[in-house]
Amino acid sequence: MATTLVLGGTRSGKTRHARSLLPTGAYTVIDASADGHDHNDGVHGPREDVVTGAEKNVVRTLDVTRSILRSRNPVLVDCLGAWVVGLLDEWQSWDDLTGSLKRVEDATYELAALWADAPFDTVAVSHEVSFSPVAVEPRARVYQETLGRVNAIISEASRRTHVVIAGRILDLSNAPVVR
User: Fold this and answer.
1) Predicted TM-score (pTM) of this structure
2) Nearest of 58, 61, 54 to residue 82 by alpha carbon
3) pLDDT, tens digit, 9 for 90 and up, residues 70-82
4) 159 φ/ψ sector (left φ>0, alpha ψ -120 to 50, else beta)
């Protein structure tokens, strides 16, 4: 089965592309924000974009790894950035970059262990933070650093990695991995 990481900026088309990689209507959406709000936009508004049809099973949780195992269907994880925010909020670790990186890496390596051999097609969406200037504000810096690490770990575990920029898809699946 294929595991795919789809990266991109806001309104790049990344989620639309991710959905196109899964069978229509026969997949589980894991809303990794846990509370159904988009924490990546700074507004914390409802994530109405996650559910586009009644035929989809939507699970709101930070326990992404176990939710993938329980789904027994292809899965769309939307989105790893919201997952990172949810974890950092739950752990109240926004003020500790080193500690946050360690805890998020541990959770991500657990996910990557499953991800590399997922028993069904699984696609994750995430914001590509490496195109942004280095954040100056401490909370933004923790988010940028931890999500960048999550993306690298999941990309390496994925069979495919796509980047969506301005509605165009770049396939990085055969690109060398930085070690």
Assistant:
1) 0.89
2) 61
3) 998 999 999 999 9
4) alpha
